[in-house]
Amino acid sequence: MSSEYEQQQSRLSSEQAEQPSEEPWTDLELTLPHNRSPTGIVSFVECALVELTHEDVGAEFVSTSVAGTKRTQFIAVDDVGEQFQKRYFDERLGWHETTVSREAVREELVNRLSRSSLNRTSETPSTDADTFRVKPIHQF
């Protein structure tokens, strides 16, 4: 015969199993400008790269200016996360795709996410903020 405590634990376990757990990559989103330190940016980018390697997700950086919207997407193309597909979209030029190394992705993301708000002062006030987010590949 089960004790009341064991029955409660069993009920809690089944309730938790029914609720979808939040994916670890859902919090990997950043809007520029931000107040993260340079070390915090590197750590953030490393977390994103780990998720890109181990989950069915990609990273997207969206930049808007008076010249239009530009999107840069990164998707791991191997299981070890050493090669990534880089997709770049410019409203005037269309899509361009290439394969880049993990180091190149890391460097590009750290540089883009480290930009200060001073780089955006020449833009019009109605321009949307630049954003970076990790999301399921099927949403690209």
Automatic annotation (TrEMBL):
Q: Which Pfam families match?
A: DUF8030
Chain intervals for the UniProt region annotation (Disordered): 1-32, 116-140
InterPro entries, sorted: DUF8030 (IPR058343)
The Polar residues compositionally biased stretches are 1-12
The record lists the organism as Halogeometricum pallidum JCM 14848
Q: Would you tell me the protein name for this molecule? A: DUF8030 domain-containing protein
The DUF8030 domain, residue ranges: 45-139
